[in-house]
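Reply to dn_fold:

You asked what the input looked like. This is it:
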Amino acid sequence: MDFTSYLDYFQRIVKNKDETLPELYKNPEYLEYTKLNWSRLNRWMKTGKLLDETIAKLKSIDSPQNWIVITEPWCGDASHIVPFIELMARENDLIQVSYELRDSEPFRINNYLTGTSKSIPILIIQDKEGKDVKVWGPRPKECQEIFISETKKGTDFEGLKIILQKWYNQDKGVQIQQEVLDFISI
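and this is what came back:
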């Protein structure tokens, strides 16, 4: 699906008016967290800034690339990362980006596990022949290190969400851009 379709799907969940949506979103806690993610995603789409070097490198890409983002509206990390991936892809018409849901067919996530986990979001960059050039995710390295450290300490899920939220707010998408730029082929 394209970004507009992903947003439409996300909004149907937030409005809670579609009986065909996954059972998960009928859980009030998941629904509330998904609503929060909707707000975060929209905030970054309005306020997220690409670095000058990000824009320059993206504009210098001279052959087609296909970016596939595996995500879900319930994912807190995705609410911070997906907007920057979308903003980056918009900088060059040679970048075509599509979004796939982790928990729906074609279940591509099974080919891009983080260890044994189906962690998201995952960005897959393919060349014009559809060959994987690079896979990135589920979060920037520093944020991933915090996640692992806090998990080992036994930080509960609520506490972990707050710690990661603060990290994303302070970083403002800079590390996401830098890490993706490190492997973009031009």
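Strands lie at 65-71, 95-101, 122-126, 132-136.
Hope that clears it up.
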